[in-house]
Every structure is written in C-alpha cells, then in structure tokens.
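Quick one from the shared queue. A colleague (R.T.) flagged 16S rRNA (Guanine(966)-N(2))-methyltransferase RsmD as missing a structural entry in our internal table.

Convert sequence to structure tokens.
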Amino acid sequence: MRIVAGTARGRRLAAPRGSGTRPTSDRTREALFARLDAWGAVEGARVLDLFCGSGALALEALSRGAAEATGVEADRAAARLARDNAAGLGLPLVVVADRAERWLGGAQAEGPWDLVLLDPPYDLGEGALAAVLGAVAERCSPGAVVVVERSARSPEPTWPAGLTPLEPRTYGETTVWFAEPPDADRSAPPGDG
C-alpha cells in the first residue's frame, strides 16, 4: 500500500496482518479520492475515519490537504499500526482504539465532521452499520460527504433520515457508497478522474 497523492505521495504504508482488517486497494483509494477531490470534499476538511485499519484512508485525506483527521479502530494491533503509519509519514492522524459504535456515543465524537469514511469489516451486519450511520448523520457538517466501502455483494446501506445517498461506484469486488446531508445539494456526481 502507498499514499496515492499529495504531500506524502508514493510513501509506503504498512498493512495489518491477520487482524481481520481488509485494506482498501490503491486503485480503489485513487478513484475514491479523485471523486472526493472533484467535489472539493478533502481540502481543509475535518475527517473521521471509522474502522480505520491501517489508517490509509485518513492518511490519504491528510496528504491531500485535510485539516485534521481522527481514526477509530477496535483492533488494538491495527490501531497501533495506524499510529505508526501516521508517525512514519509525519501526518497528524489521531487514532483511537475503540469500537466505532461506542466511540460515537461519547463526547469526543461530537463533530461536526466534513468527511466521514467508513470501511467496516464486510461481515458487519446491516443493522449494526445502520446504527453507526445514524450516529454519524447527527455529527456531519451541512456540506459533509459520507463514504461507505462494502463488498459488491452487500446491499445498499440503510441510510438514516439525515443522509441522502448519491450514486455509488463499484471497483472490482468493492462498492463505494456516498451520501450527504439533505441540504448539501451537490450537482451531478463527477467522474472518477
């Protein structure tokens, strides 16, 4: 794995081994961030990366100009690796070793967040994902973008009333779902760059 663009472009990231985490491929990350950059969703953003694994998504956002980023990861070894990756790149990623659902219930999660990235384990149930998305919707800024990465075989996430889905993109075995607060009113989805 490597950082695709920005100040840390080309720098390598360590990936978790045997922890059950599934890193986002460089190709998927590149396409995802091309879309987010086209929307102006990264530069200066407050980023929340739930189920952050190695921290690759949050670190990509920081490399591309996000103002700050917090990663939440339940697996302690993966959270340690995310911290090590951030330190190695010199990027200010704050990593919290906790379950996303529990962390979102605390005061530290209040936001507002401009970009929320969720890459949960593929075996996370749809009900559990819906509960996390409900908590996320309450903490988004008015122009926020929420991204959910799932298996291409998974159904569309159940979006809470506070999020309006945008057109998804599929990259091989991965589908990336996008949503925004109802009043964000983005124009037609941009291409993938």
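The chain has one domain: 26-180.
The first strand starts at residue 46 and ends at 50.
Added to the table.
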